[in-house]
Design goal:
- By secondary structure, this protein is of the alpha+beta class.
- It has 2 domains: 177 residues, 2-Layer Sandwich (Gyrase A, domain 2), CATH 3.30.1360; 55 residues.
- The protein has 7 helices and 12 strands.
- It has a 5-stranded antiparallel β-sheet. The protein has a 4-stranded antiparallel β-sheet with strand order 10-11-9-12, with helices on both faces.
- The chain is globular, with a radius of gyration of 18 Å.
- The two termini are 21 Å apart.
- 35% of the residues are buried.
């Protein structure tokens, strides 16, 4: 799902340079055993045979709802880095299948830091001296439609609603994995009549208007601001009285 046009009024020109963020709200699940690669290949949207040692991916259920996005580091075992809280949901989900592959799963307390470089996000093991905090990372992730899934939105939305760039997350050439048919249908058959649009600190009146015009997905409070994500038709933010200005959209705004 290529980004049609992403206008981020809250980003500065410095956003395109490399920035680092200390991430205190992440943890990891370690998968170890005889058939780690075989197990993951049937669970993730990426193709593990074509991926580098470190890559990002999605875990979905059979209906195509996103359990979480994740950053995976492969070695003799696999380290799956996700937000704290959602790791418990993913762990319970994977336990249903892992026994068939003679593998085990264990929570690992790890240090991690984030990197934002030329519009791309990466999560690394270890620490990095930086003044940038988790909340600024979360803000950038939301307005770039690359949200790190947290507990309350896990298993609630599909990839098109969250706005993920499928070129970064999904292989359409690999074999079967959970949610594959739904994701393929979304990618190939969706007409895209409504797309994700994000607003910040809108009034109750504007919220009700947008909810009536489309579909409200979720809100996230970061520092003193609240971000709202909707699915809207093109131009739905233009009312008779004014324009409710979005801060990010997968529609092309003039």
């Amino acid at each position: 799902m290529p980004l049609l046009a992403l206008k981020l009024s809250c980003l500065t020109s410095n956003s395109l340079s490399m920035s680092f963020f200390q991430l205190n709200n992440y943890t990891a699940l370690e998968i170890s055993g005889e058939r780690v690669s075989d197990f993951l290949q049937g669970q993730i949207t990426s193709d593990i045979t074509q991926s580098p040692i470190k890559f990002k991916t999605l875990f979905c259920d059979e209906k195509g709802y996103v359990i979480t996005n994740a950053y995976v580091i492969l070695n003799d075992s696999a380290l799956i880095m996700v937000k704290k809280g959602v790791h418990r949901i993913l762990e319970e989900n994977l336990k249903k299948f892992i026994k068939f592959y003679r593998c085990s799963i264990e929570v690992k307390d790890v240090e991690s830091y984030g990197e934002f470089s030329n519009g791309k996000f990466f999560v690394h093991l270890g620490s990095k001296k930086t003044d940038n905090k988790d909340d600024e990372w979360d803000r950038l992730k939301i307005v770039n439609f690359d949200i790190d899934i947290y507990e309350s939105i896990s298993n609630k939305f599909r990839v098109n609603e969250l706005g993920y760039n499928l070129e970064d997350y999904v292989s359409f050439d690999k074999g079967c994995y959970r949610g594959q048919e739904i994701i393929a249908r979304i990618n190939y058959l969706s007409k895209g009549s409504i797309k994700p649009v994000i607003f910040k600190d809108i009034s109750n009146k504007n919220f009700k208007y947008l909810e009536k015009e489309g579909k409200f997905l979720f809100s996230a409070k970061i520092k003193e601001s609240i971000f709202y994500q909707f699915m809207l038709r093109e131009g739905a933010e233009i009312t008779k009285e004014n324009t409710i200005k979005p801060i990010a959209s997968l529609w092309e705004f003039s």
